[in-house]
Amino acid sequence: MTEFADAPIDQASAASLLSNGLRLGLVDTSDSAQFETWLRADSRGFHGPEASAETIAHHVSGLADRRTTGVWDDSTLDPAMPVATVSSWTVDMTVPGRRTIEAWAISSVTVSPTHRRKGIARALLEGELRTAHRRGTPMATLTVSESTIYGRFGFAPAAFATDLEIDATRVTWTGPIPDGRVNFVTRAQFRTEVAAMHDRVRLDSPGQIPAWDLRWDQFAGLVDDDTTKGADLRAVRYDDVDGQPRGLALYRVTENHGDFAGHTLTLLHLSHETDDAYHALWRFVLEMDLVRTIKARHRSVDEPVVWNVSDRRAVSQTTWDHLWLRILDVPAALEARSYAREARCVLRVQDELGFAAGTYLLEVDATGFAQVTSGFDADDSSAVSLPAVSLPVTSLSALYLGGVSASTLAAAGLLAGTAESISILDSVFHSTRAPWLSIWF
Ligand SMILES: CC(C)(COP(=O)(O)OP(=O)(O)OC[C@H]1O[C@@H](n2cnc3c(N)ncnc32)[C@H](O)[C@@H]1OP(=O)(O)O)[C@@H](O)C(=O)NCCC(=O)NCCS
């Protein structure tokens, strides 16, 4: 298997772009001038600010290990500046059963507003999928700016996130009160400890991926252009009775000038490796003086805190699609996760781009692990009595982490099968932990 960064550009995409006078190529990220120009194009594509030299330097060193692709139009006023960008790298994504699957993470998808709707993003995305598939990576993944773009390429939302808004004047903490202590730590300390904490807990939730140093620097407000934003961040750590750090939280309090008792606390991060840490950190947040509103962004859809407050109607929840998946190799993907029960069923998968199309026999043993046979002959007489469903690759990708049930997809017309087959799939694909990804990429 090639290192992901060495994978060559996709020739089909290069040819289709060339026929429109555009050049597809990889950026040499060790050439800081070339990489800096690409980074500026990426930022402009997302309407970001003109970054300072320090911020660019931080990004040049922090993102150099990614496979970095650009599209150039030599007829523009600044031919060195790409008119489109994309980057990719491989991640070990958590799947049900505390296991991981290698996934092709895609980010920085931008096309200059001067070149939009000419098929450039399609060439880039299809090229990324073919490159990942050629390399043997069974899954592609991304987080999205708009949920309207990626379904056409076979992606579907597979892990959701919830924003909580809590009227702090109506709630008291009713959960357990742990014996350890909550201590303030500096942002720099938070930054030092949060990466290791994330790595200790990421197998707990299907959908989590490892983060990278620059991401944590940005979280802690330590990257140059973000430093002023970071000045109002506060970090706390829960230490258990033996003094062992078990959880971290990062928050900001925004002042209400008209009413000093009406501030807003925004919880930006909370990670924990024990229930005690979770309880202590949430209690700390909920009981903060001078705060009327608590906003907690990007939490799990199954957040236990709603069971730990005196008035659950004081907590409003907005759920949104966050992690999108695209299965490229059905047997490898399905064999990577474990399942909630023993089963044998047939999956007939449609895929317009071809990667995942076929008929597969999924056989889950009593320990929850699966064997998948592809090219399965669904007309085989021994298969007639097996439960079977028919579904597009988007539905299989949505089902994969257990974030939506087969019944729901069937009710939406996105999966077909007998009631019995659908109910079997519901219980087989179920995940005891709701899938959740706590970062953007
Ligand atoms: C989104 C973006 C990358 C699309 O680039 P593009 O080159 O204009 O896209 P294409 O011309 O290749 O379009 C491919 C298909 O996607 C559709 N599409 C493109 N952008 C879309 C959007 N924002 N919403 C819905 N559909 C979109 C096109 O209609 C086309 O559909 P079809 O081929 O099925 O008929 C570009 O508009 C952009 O840079 N946006 C700002 C940054 C951003 O949000 N990037 C995505 C990050 S996750």
Number of helices: 12
CATH architecture of the largest domain: 3-Layer(aba) Sandwich
Structural class: alpha+beta
Helicity, in percent? 25-40%
Q: Which spans have pLDDT < 50 for at least 5 consecutive residues?
A: none
* Approximate strand percentage: 25-35%
Strand and helix order = HEHHEEEHEEEHHHEEEHEEHEEEEHHEH
What compounds sit in this structure?
Answer: coenzyme A
Write down the CATH class of the largest domain. Alpha Beta
- What is the radius of gyration computed over CA atoms, rounded to a whole number of angstroms? 24 Å
How many separate domains?
Answer: 3
Task: Write a structural description.
The protein is an alpha+beta fold. The chain folds into 3 domains: 151 residues, Aminopeptidase, CATH 3.40.630.30; 158 residues, Gcn5-related N-acetyltransferase (GNAT) (Aminopeptidase, 3-Layer(aba) Sandwich), CATH 3.40.630.30; 100 residues, Nonspecific Lipid-transfer Protein, Chain A (2-Layer Sandwich), CATH 3.30.1050.10. It has a 12-stranded mixed sheet, with helices on both faces. A 5-stranded mixed sheet has the order 15-14-13-16-17. A hairpin with a 3-residue loop joins strand 3 and strand 4. Helix 1 runs antiparallel to helix 4 and helix 2 crosses helix 3. The mean pLDDT is 96. The structure holds coenzyme A (COA).
